């Protein structure tokens, strides 16, 4: 049995849960074929985000694997959201079993 690894760029976005619909819309607009959303807790420059009250003081983490050019545009489009919301985003080159 043989297989080959695919290459891509993993983009991770951690931000306020109130941004979820807006972030999904952005991913859809960019033609992203898939993503994963998970609740996130922690502390940073915007204080503690413990998710102890639904819809308040909660964060999400979104992960998607895309082409390099898509990751460029995604990071550019996320920039303006930082003006009014707690949000970080980063990318990493990855190889794995994905299409």
Give a verbal description of the structure.
It comes from Floridaenema fluviatile BLCC-F154. This is P-II family nitrogen regulator. InterPro entries: N-reg_PII, N-reg_PII-like_a/b, N-reg_PII/ATP_PRibTrfase_C. It is a single chain. This protein has 99 residues and is α+β, with helices and mostly antiparallel strands. It has a single domain, classed as Alpha-Beta Plaits, CATH 3.30.70.120. It has two helices and six strands; from the N terminus they run E-H-E-E-E-E-H-E. It has helices at 20-29, 68-78; strands at 6-16, 36-40, 42-44, 47-49, 59-66, 87-96. The strands form two sheets. It has a four-stranded antiparallel β-sheet. Strand 3 (42-44) and strand 4 form a beta hairpin. The two termini are 18 Å apart. The model has no long low-confidence stretch (mean pLDDT 89).
Core attributes:
99 residues, alpha+beta, Alpha-Beta Plaits, two-stranded antiparallel sheet, 2 helices, 6 strands, 40% strand
Report the radius of gyration as a whole number of Å. 15 Å
- Unreliable residue stretches: none
User: How many beta-strand segments?
Assistant: 6
CATH architecture: 2-Layer Sandwich
Give the biggest beta sheet.
4 strands, antiparallel
CATH topology name, in short, is Alpha-Beta Plaits
User: Could you say which overall geometry the principal axes of the C-alpha atoms support?
Assistant: globular
Helix-residue proportion: 10-25%
Structural class by sheet pairing and helices: alpha+beta
Count of DSSP-assigned helices:
2
Note the beta-strand portion. 35-45%
Tally of distinct domains: 1
Kindly report the average pLDDT value: 89
What order do the SSEs take from the amino end to the carboxyl end, as H and E? EHEEEEHE
User: Quick one: CATH class?
Assistant: Alpha Beta
Distance between the termini: 18 Å
Protein name: P-II family nitrogen regulator
Organism: Floridaenema fluviatile BLCC-F154
InterPro entries: N-reg_PII (IPR002187), N-reg_PII-like_a/b (IPR011322), N-reg_PII/ATP_PRibTrfase_C (IPR015867)
